[in-house]
Amino acid sequence: MHDRITRYCACMLLVLSPVAAAARDTVTLCYEAQDVKPWRTEKGGGLNFALLKMVEQRLDIQFDFQSIPWKRCLAQLKANAVDGAFAVSYKADRRELGEYPGGQEVDATKRMHTDTYVVLRRKGSQVAWDGKQFSHLDGAIGFQLGYSVGDVLRAQNLEVDEGSQRADELARKLIAGRLAAAALGGSDAAGLMRGPLGAQLEQLPIPIIEKPYFLILSHALVASKPQLAARIWSEVEQARNSPAYRKLAEAQGVHH
Protein backbone atom coordinates (compact mmCIF):
# COMPACT_ATOMS: atom_id res chain seq x y z
CA MET A 1 0.00 0.00 0.00
CA HIS A 2 2.79 2.38 0.99
CA ASP A 3 4.59 1.68 -2.31
CA ARG A 4 1.43 2.41 -4.30
CA ILE A 5 1.01 5.79 -2.55
CA THR A 6 4.66 6.65 -3.19
CA ARG A 7 4.33 5.72 -6.88
CA TYR A 8 1.08 7.72 -7.12
CA CYS A 9 2.73 10.81 -5.56
CA ALA A 10 5.71 10.48 -7.90
CA CYS A 11 3.39 10.24 -10.91
CA MET A 12 1.42 13.28 -9.79
CA LEU A 13 4.67 15.28 -9.44
CA LEU A 14 5.62 14.33 -12.99
CA VAL A 15 2.21 15.43 -14.21
CA LEU A 16 2.10 18.67 -12.24
CA SER A 17 5.67 19.93 -12.48
CA PRO A 18 5.64 20.86 -16.20
CA VAL A 19 2.38 22.74 -15.63
CA ALA A 20 3.85 24.64 -12.68
CA ALA A 21 7.01 25.45 -14.63
CA ALA A 22 5.04 26.69 -17.65
CA ALA A 23 2.72 28.88 -15.58
CA ARG A 24 5.34 31.58 -15.06
CA ASP A 25 7.12 33.11 -18.07
CA THR A 26 10.73 34.18 -17.53
CA VAL A 27 11.76 37.22 -19.57
CA THR A 28 15.47 38.10 -19.73
CA LEU A 29 16.19 41.84 -19.80
CA CYS A 30 19.56 43.56 -20.08
CA TYR A 31 20.39 47.05 -18.88
CA GLU A 32 23.43 49.28 -18.79
CA ALA A 33 26.13 48.27 -16.30
CA GLN A 34 26.29 51.58 -14.48
CA ASP A 35 24.30 53.82 -12.16
CA VAL A 36 21.88 56.20 -13.90
CA LYS A 37 20.05 57.68 -10.92
CA PRO A 38 17.23 57.96 -10.07
CA TRP A 39 16.27 55.49 -12.82
CA ARG A 40 18.53 52.56 -12.08
CA THR A 41 21.66 51.38 -10.33
CA GLU A 42 24.01 48.64 -11.42
CA LYS A 43 22.86 46.57 -8.44
CA GLY A 44 19.17 46.71 -9.36
CA GLY A 45 17.87 49.74 -7.46
CA GLY A 46 16.05 52.82 -8.76
CA LEU A 47 12.72 53.69 -10.35
CA ASN A 48 13.10 51.51 -13.48
CA PHE A 49 13.44 48.41 -11.31
CA ALA A 50 10.58 49.48 -9.02
CA LEU A 51 8.38 49.86 -12.11
CA LEU A 52 9.38 46.51 -13.63
CA LYS A 53 8.87 44.72 -10.32
CA MET A 54 5.31 46.05 -10.27
CA VAL A 55 4.86 44.67 -13.82
CA GLU A 56 6.21 41.29 -12.65
CA GLN A 57 3.67 41.11 -9.83
CA ARG A 58 0.76 42.25 -11.99
CA LEU A 59 1.46 39.67 -14.71
CA ASP A 60 2.93 36.92 -12.49
CA ILE A 61 6.04 36.68 -14.66
CA GLN A 62 9.73 36.59 -13.76
CA PHE A 63 12.23 39.12 -15.11
CA ASP A 64 15.84 37.92 -15.25
CA PHE A 65 17.93 41.12 -15.12
CA GLN A 66 21.41 41.20 -16.68
CA SER A 67 23.76 44.13 -16.13
CA ILE A 68 26.15 44.51 -19.12
CA PRO A 69 27.85 47.36 -21.06
CA TRP A 70 25.30 49.27 -23.14
CA LYS A 71 26.60 48.52 -26.64
CA ARG A 72 26.78 44.80 -25.82
CA CYS A 73 23.28 44.89 -24.34
CA LEU A 74 21.90 46.27 -27.61
CA ALA A 75 23.91 43.73 -29.63
CA GLN A 76 22.48 40.90 -27.47
CA LEU A 77 18.99 42.23 -28.13
CA LYS A 78 19.58 42.30 -31.89
CA ALA A 79 20.85 38.69 -31.74
CA ASN A 80 17.72 37.62 -29.74
CA ALA A 81 20.11 36.49 -26.99
CA VAL A 82 17.97 38.46 -24.48
CA ASP A 83 14.21 39.12 -24.54
CA GLY A 84 14.45 42.87 -24.00
CA ALA A 85 16.53 45.89 -23.01
CA PHE A 86 15.82 49.03 -20.98
CA ALA A 87 15.72 51.97 -20.85
CA VAL A 88 16.05 52.74 -24.57
CA SER A 89 15.24 56.01 -26.33
CA TYR A 90 13.80 55.94 -29.82
CA LYS A 91 16.06 56.02 -32.87
CA ALA A 92 14.84 54.81 -36.26
CA ASP A 93 17.86 52.54 -36.76
CA ARG A 94 17.19 50.85 -33.42
CA ARG A 95 14.10 49.20 -34.95
CA GLU A 96 16.44 46.53 -36.30
CA LEU A 97 17.52 45.75 -32.71
CA GLY A 98 14.07 45.07 -31.30
CA GLU A 99 10.45 46.19 -31.07
CA TYR A 100 9.10 49.36 -29.47
CA PRO A 101 5.57 49.48 -28.04
CA GLY A 102 3.09 50.59 -30.69
CA GLY A 103 4.88 49.07 -33.66
CA GLN A 104 5.42 51.52 -36.55
CA GLU A 105 3.88 54.38 -34.55
CA VAL A 106 5.85 54.28 -31.31
CA ASP A 107 3.45 54.66 -28.37
CA ALA A 108 4.98 57.11 -25.89
CA THR A 109 2.20 56.42 -23.37
CA LYS A 110 3.91 53.06 -22.80
CA ARG A 111 7.27 54.64 -21.93
CA MET A 112 9.16 53.78 -18.75
CA HIS A 113 10.11 57.40 -18.14
CA THR A 114 11.04 60.70 -19.76
CA ASP A 115 14.50 62.23 -19.42
CA THR A 116 16.46 65.10 -20.91
CA TYR A 117 19.96 65.58 -22.26
CA VAL A 118 21.68 68.69 -20.94
CA VAL A 119 24.99 70.49 -21.51
CA LEU A 120 27.72 70.78 -18.88
CA ARG A 121 30.67 73.13 -19.21
CA ARG A 122 33.69 73.96 -17.05
CA LYS A 123 33.03 76.73 -14.54
CA GLY A 124 33.90 80.03 -16.19
CA SER A 125 33.70 78.65 -19.76
CA GLN A 126 31.91 80.72 -22.42
CA VAL A 127 30.32 77.68 -24.16
CA ALA A 128 26.63 78.42 -24.77
CA TRP A 129 23.58 76.54 -26.13
CA ASP A 130 20.46 78.48 -27.18
CA GLY A 131 18.26 75.45 -27.87
CA LYS A 132 19.25 75.34 -31.54
CA GLN A 133 23.00 75.78 -31.78
CA PHE A 134 26.21 76.04 -29.79
CA SER A 135 28.48 79.06 -29.59
CA HIS A 136 32.02 79.55 -28.19
CA LEU A 137 32.61 75.80 -28.57
CA ASP A 138 36.40 75.64 -28.70
CA GLY A 139 36.83 71.86 -28.95
CA ALA A 140 34.93 68.59 -28.91
CA ILE A 141 31.68 67.93 -27.11
CA GLY A 142 31.71 64.59 -25.30
CA PHE A 143 28.94 62.06 -24.74
CA GLN A 144 28.78 58.48 -23.48
CA LEU A 145 29.53 55.58 -25.79
CA GLY A 146 26.48 54.46 -27.79
CA TYR A 147 24.17 57.17 -26.43
CA SER A 148 21.53 58.53 -28.85
CA VAL A 149 22.40 62.20 -28.21
CA GLY A 150 25.44 61.58 -30.43
CA ASP A 151 23.15 61.64 -33.49
CA VAL A 152 21.80 65.06 -32.51
CA LEU A 153 25.33 66.45 -32.08
CA ARG A 154 26.64 64.92 -35.30
CA ALA A 155 23.68 66.37 -37.22
CA GLN A 156 25.09 69.80 -36.32
CA ASN A 157 28.49 68.84 -37.74
CA LEU A 158 30.13 69.31 -34.36
CA GLU A 159 33.40 67.72 -33.30
CA VAL A 160 32.39 64.91 -30.93
CA ASP A 161 34.15 62.59 -28.50
CA GLU A 162 32.47 59.24 -27.79
CA GLY A 163 35.37 57.76 -25.84
CA SER A 164 33.82 57.57 -22.36
CA GLN A 165 31.46 54.95 -20.91
CA ARG A 166 30.71 56.72 -17.63
CA ALA A 167 29.36 60.14 -16.72
CA ASP A 168 32.14 60.81 -14.21
CA GLU A 169 34.80 60.03 -16.86
CA LEU A 170 33.23 62.66 -19.12
CA ALA A 171 33.17 65.19 -16.27
CA ARG A 172 36.87 64.61 -15.48
CA LYS A 173 37.83 65.04 -19.16
CA LEU A 174 35.81 68.26 -19.24
CA ILE A 175 37.46 69.61 -16.07
CA ALA A 176 40.91 68.64 -17.43
CA GLY A 177 40.26 70.72 -20.58
CA ARG A 178 40.15 67.72 -22.94
CA LEU A 179 36.56 68.56 -23.89
CA ALA A 180 34.84 71.89 -24.51
CA ALA A 181 31.50 70.62 -23.20
CA ALA A 182 29.68 67.40 -22.34
CA ALA A 183 26.16 66.23 -23.23
CA LEU A 184 24.69 64.11 -20.45
CA GLY A 185 21.37 62.61 -19.43
CA GLY A 186 19.58 64.96 -17.05
CA SER A 187 19.68 62.48 -14.15
CA ASP A 188 23.43 61.84 -14.67
CA ALA A 189 24.08 65.58 -14.79
CA ALA A 190 22.07 66.18 -11.61
CA GLY A 191 24.11 63.48 -9.84
CA LEU A 192 27.40 65.05 -10.95
CA MET A 193 26.32 68.55 -9.91
CA ARG A 194 25.49 67.24 -6.42
CA GLY A 195 28.78 65.34 -6.16
CA PRO A 196 32.41 66.29 -5.53
CA LEU A 197 33.00 67.44 -9.14
CA GLY A 198 29.96 69.74 -9.19
CA ALA A 199 31.83 72.79 -7.87
CA GLN A 200 33.98 72.81 -11.05
CA LEU A 201 31.03 72.46 -13.46
CA GLU A 202 28.07 74.47 -14.71
CA GLN A 203 24.87 73.14 -16.26
CA LEU A 204 23.34 75.20 -19.07
CA PRO A 205 19.63 75.96 -18.55
CA ILE A 206 18.20 74.80 -21.91
CA PRO A 207 18.13 71.01 -22.54
CA ILE A 208 19.49 69.67 -25.83
CA ILE A 209 16.55 67.30 -26.12
CA GLU A 210 13.80 65.70 -24.03
CA LYS A 211 12.70 62.19 -24.92
CA PRO A 212 10.84 59.12 -23.67
CA TYR A 213 12.68 55.91 -22.74
CA PHE A 214 11.21 52.47 -23.37
CA LEU A 215 11.47 48.80 -22.58
CA ILE A 216 12.11 47.35 -26.04
CA LEU A 217 11.51 43.65 -26.62
CA SER A 218 13.31 41.28 -28.96
CA HIS A 219 11.94 40.47 -32.40
CA ALA A 220 11.88 36.79 -31.38
CA LEU A 221 9.78 37.38 -28.24
CA VAL A 222 7.27 39.59 -30.04
CA ALA A 223 6.96 37.04 -32.88
CA SER A 224 6.59 33.99 -30.61
CA LYS A 225 4.57 35.55 -27.75
CA PRO A 226 2.81 38.66 -29.11
CA GLN A 227 0.16 38.61 -26.37
CA LEU A 228 2.78 38.51 -23.61
CA ALA A 229 4.65 41.41 -25.23
CA ALA A 230 1.44 43.48 -25.46
CA ARG A 231 0.57 42.70 -21.84
CA ILE A 232 4.06 43.72 -20.63
CA TRP A 233 3.90 47.09 -22.41
CA SER A 234 0.35 47.70 -21.23
CA GLU A 235 1.33 46.98 -17.62
CA VAL A 236 4.36 49.32 -17.89
CA GLU A 237 1.88 52.13 -18.63
CA GLN A 238 -0.54 51.02 -15.87
CA ALA A 239 2.22 50.65 -13.27
CA ARG A 240 3.82 54.01 -14.19
CA ASN A 241 0.46 55.75 -13.67
CA SER A 242 -0.30 53.92 -10.42
CA PRO A 243 -0.44 55.85 -7.13
CA ALA A 244 2.26 53.56 -5.66
CA TYR A 245 4.76 54.37 -8.45
CA ARG A 246 3.89 58.08 -8.49
CA LYS A 247 4.64 58.24 -4.78
CA LEU A 248 8.05 56.60 -5.32
CA ALA A 249 8.83 58.93 -8.24
CA GLU A 250 7.86 62.08 -6.35
CA ALA A 251 10.06 61.04 -3.42
CA GLN A 252 12.96 61.09 -5.95
CA GLY A 253 11.96 64.53 -7.24
CA VAL A 254 10.53 63.10 -10.48
CA HIS A 255 7.18 64.48 -11.67
CA HIS A 256 5.05 63.30 -14.62
From TrEMBL:
Q: Where is the Solute-binding protein family 3/N-terminal domain?
A: 43-250
Coiled coil, from the record: none
This protein's UniProt keywords = Signal
Superkingdom in the source lineage: Bacteria
According to the record, the signal peptide region is 1-22
Q: One Pfam family this chain carries? A: SBP_bac_3
Q: Which InterPro entries match?
A: Solute-binding_3/MltF_N (IPR001638)
Q: What's the protein called, per UniProt?
A: Transporter substrate-binding domain-containing protein
- Specify the species: Duganella alba
